[in-house]
Write a structure and sequence with these properties.
694 residues, alpha+beta, Glutaredoxin, 5-stranded antiparallel β-sheet, 4-stranded mixed β-sheet, 19 strands, disordered N terminus
Length: 694
Amino acid sequence: MAVLGHAMATTDLINRLTDETSPYLKQHAGNPVAWQPWDENALRIAREADRPILLSVGYSACHWCHVMAHESFEDEAVAAVMNRLFVCIKVDREERPDLDRVYQAAHNLLARRAGGWPLTMFLAPDDLTPFFGGTYFPKEARFGLPAFPDLLVHVEQYFREHRADLIAQGPRLREILATSDQITPADTTTDESPADRALAELKGQFDAIDGGFGGAPKFPHPGGVRRLLLACVRHADQEARSMLGTTLHAMADRGLYDHLEGGFFRYSVDAKWHIPHFEKMLYDNAQLIALYAEAFAATGDSRFRDAASAAGDWVLRDMETPHGGYYATLDADSGGEEGAFYLWQRSDFEEWLDAGEQAVAIPYYGLDGPPNFEGHAYHLMLATPLKDIAKRLGLPLEEVAARAAGARDKLAAARARRARPGRDDKILTAWNGLMIKALARAGRLLGIPRFVDSAARACDRMRLELWDGARLSAVAKDGRVSPYGYLDDYAFLLDGLLELLATRWRQEDLVFALALAKRMCADFADHENGGFYFTASDHTTPLYRPKSFSDDALPSGNAVAASALFRLSHLLADPTLEAPARAAVDAGLAALARYPSMHAALIEAWEDANDPPAIIVLRGAQGPLDRWHERARAGFAPRRAVYAIPNDAKDLPPGLAARAPLGTVVAYACQGFMCEAPVTDEATFESVLARTML
């Protein structure tokens, strides 16, 4: 496209999103806004036309993104203002998490409050420095927010009238952002470990009535809940045990969970876990499936097993692709209304269920009380225990449970007739890595081979389609892959591969894991200060190169990378892989000391650095090998990884090959790089397992 400096009218631009693969961008391909993808062509147009950039970041399952789109981006008059004053760029935050991280950080700095989606930022065209921003803006003034069309005019006017000031403040803003990931050490000294301090903070934030941390909106925070699990099994902390049970039961029994088809919603809009934001994200479900499977292994509570199993089956049914791997999200909206797919009227139960099923299902799911969704509909929860219903009806519990199961199946079939929520069918490597880990772990702990089979198929898809033999891609969609990958892609997939190897040994997964680890260390490591950048050394990101150690909706990529490298280095007896892991933990110590409860994943990496978990390598013939492996993976052993390698495995790395076959079956138990004598009798093996349980 030819551009003639200031004479260029951005109203001459056309919407260029039609050829994009992102479902989110395609949602906006029909807007009258002349949306551009983030590419050099769009940035060049802005520079040469000297027009500020209106950057809009969102994702396909985002409810408020849809609201802003319907109100403003589909409106001809609003679009005309946008096209006249700005070069408008639309970004899918799931495809470009680097841009989202950078401009969310900029929003936090400029607005002095947390951001979110849709993210609306206004950038100077010459250096892409933001000068104003927000999240959702309504078409007409409300919620204490200005009308979006009026805001557009004022922002563009400010840009023109204060251009010199903006140019002057740009370098300072970029400098602040570039140092925003650097945390100075806390001034306090304490003998408490980061794990103890994090647990104390979590106890202070705990909602003793409804579980979870803080108030509305209430998020699952799986990293924090897992700290409770570890505290109650390692230290018999009864307060942590009570907090754990209250939280996990509330999340699984109330509205955060889909009681007909399984799976967890994104978060609860209220503090009681009653009404969720109805989007289902792959990454939330991955973390929660693993957490509930571990909680079952640790406590024996069947509700935790059932929640993990049903959520895993939902993933296999609705989110697994025909060729392996997992789709990204299910939308919160269907038929243009949030939650419409999931909501019920009492008359629906009367239509679809017989009298006996109604007598159980109506109190079981809470339809014997007033509507809980905006006063006119019901979102299902487990409101009355089946044993109480059985007592009330004078029926055996088995009969009531059978009626409840029949009602569930009929309601699910009825719901299937409705317009289903939209599904974002792109394949995100990082999120797939999380789900591979979750299904491998849940499959092992719950004894569900189909979960492990699915995880293995996903690994194959990642290796064959998103790995070119040298570099990893972040996204696959419609046969196209992105030209870049991020730290989370490498770290989460490496972590998932190691979990799968501990569940079912496949030589190709080890080769893949080692290649990922080496490339991650080469392209992402900060060799001067320690830790890993979010972007590779040859990837251009505006303003600064992020490097964070805290968890958000996802665990910290730095922490997961460190933990995975510790485990791989100890498995292979390769100290060169341990060094960058230790450097990452050291680089995050200041942040960990100041904000321990925000660094649950980094605490695990810190524990791995200071007290390495046990690595047990089994070698043997398939039958005895399987028997020993089955025994080793019984129960909850969070700091023990067991790898069962057949005697005929070929081309093992030297440090692993040294743990050679010996007799019918042999166990090599190591902690870090220190190994015990090989064990060939089952009685001694039992004592090894007992010593390495926690």
